[in-house]
Design brief:
Elements (H helix, E strand, L loop, with lengths): L12 H18 L6 H15 L1 H6 L13 H20 L9 H7 L3 H21 L4 H10 L5 H19 L9
Helix pairs in contact: 7-8
Length: 178
């Protein structure tokens, strides 16, 4: 018989936060502020460069040579899901949950509806990041690492909007049976 899989406890929130903050400060000091939304423009520019080179040359955003260069931020985007998967495997805490209890209670059991809503929300977030010329990673996390004054109202607005959306989208809590 095989041994049961025992999950390891997660890193305590304070240690994880301090470690994340140290990595962010180190990244800003060694290279540049972190940000991931620009990498979607970079990938689009590389694809367009192959498919429609004339369009790329005439376009103000993707026509810049810097917009078509893969740098360390591109590998950060690749590393986010790879690192999350590695952490889940290392701690043995990965669980597949297609429809979390909070979603099911508030919006029903449909997996397709949840995935479609999540996909569309991701598009809206990315569009907002591009319209703002930066994403939450660049505005908040890198802003705090640089002690930028603009990080304070942005962080307050970000968390305030997140709490308002969560309050609207998840009014009911699931019942937990003992």
């Amino acid at each position: 018989m095989s041994e049961p899989v025992v999950s390891r406890p997660p890193v305590p929130w304070l240690a994880g936060g301090l470690l994340l903050g140290a990595v962010q400060v180190l990244a800003v000091a060694l290279a540049q502020p972190l940000g991931v939304s620009t990498q979607f423009v970079t990938v689009n520019a590389k694809v367009l460069e192959t498919v429609a080179p004339g369009y790329v040359e005439d376009h103000t955003l993707v026509g810049k040579p810097s917009a078509r260069r893969f740098g360390y931020p591109f590998w950060l985007v690749v590393g986010i899901p790879v690192g999350a998967a590695a952490a889940a495997l290392a701690t043995r805490r990965r669980r597949r949950i297609d429809v979390p209890a909070f979603w099911e209670v508030n919006h029903g059991p449909s997996r397709a509806r949840r995935f479609l809503t999540t996909f569309l929300a991701g598009i809206v977030i990315l569009l907002g990041a591009r319209l703002a010329h930066g994403c939450t990673c660049g505005q908040m996390a890198s802003g705090w690492a640089q002690l930028a004054l603009a990080a304070l109202p942005f962080t307050i607005g970000l968390f305030g909007a997140g709490m308002a959306v969560a309050f609207i989208a998840f009014r009911r809590a699931p019942r937990i049976e003992n």
